[in-house]
Specification:
single chain; mainly alpha; Tetracycline Repressor, domain 2; globular
């Protein structure tokens, strides 16, 4: 029986997801290579096949950003916050997981998404929505849930999360993604400890 016009193959979504997973692995290895030809080669298919599943390069990159958010949700579900921790320990655990994740591939995905999104009116908001905001919201929720009784409003929690996470992401970009460790080394663990202590004094006392 022939397929009615406009109807996808039964395995279209599964094949599309498999391609996204292949491309994600390639982006982790080479975050700066993102031409349509490079992504087709990374997924071991022709550019024609890639266009069949994603259309344009921008549509593919948008799908990649959405896929990255899905991977983040799956990782969060596998490694939930340890129960009954103090606020300091909960934030320390979350920051340590951020550093660990960055070093095993998350950093490359963040860098790739940033390269795609900078100056792009469509991919920029997609990067914020699918990668940057989910990271920040996790910290916002920890802060607001624990400190709402002390007047930590939703808006203040957002400000606090930015103040907590931004220096850590900058340090990771500096040391890991830009290889600043070769010219200006920084002890990330020592930095996390000092930064968290300063943050807690400034925002949570």
């Amino acid at each position: 029986m022939t397929r009615p016009p406009g109807r996808r193959n039964a395995d279209f979504d599964a094949s599309r997801t498999e391609l996204l997973e292949r491309i994600t692995r390639a982006v982790i290895e080479r975050p700066h290579q993102s031409s349509f030809a490079e992504l087709a080669e990374a997924s071991a298919v022709s550019r024609t096949t890639l266009r069949h599943y994603f259309g344009t390069r921008d549509e593919l990159l948008h799908a990649m950003l959405v896929h990255m958010e899905t991977l983040g949700r799956q990782a969060a579900a596998r490694y939930p916050e340890t129960p009954d921790l103090s606020l300091a320990d909960a934030l320390r655990e979350a920051l340590q997981r951020l550093v660990f994740g960055w070093r095993v591939g998350v950093g490359s995905l963040f860098v790739a998404g940033l390269l795609w999104g900078l100056g792009d009116e469509a991919l920029g908001p997609a990067y914020v929505r699918n990668l940057l905001e989910p990271l920040l919201v996790g910290f916002e929720q920890r802060l607001q849930t624990r400190l709402c009784a002390r007047g930590m409003s939703e808006q203040k929690a957002r400000h606090a999360a930015l103040a907590l996470v931004s220096p850590v992401v900058l340090a990771l970009l500096h040391q890991e993604s830009l290889h600043g460790v070769k010219c200006r080394p920084l002890d990330i663990d020592e930095f996390l400890h000092a930064h968290l202590e300063s943050f807690l004094r400034g925002w949570c006392t």
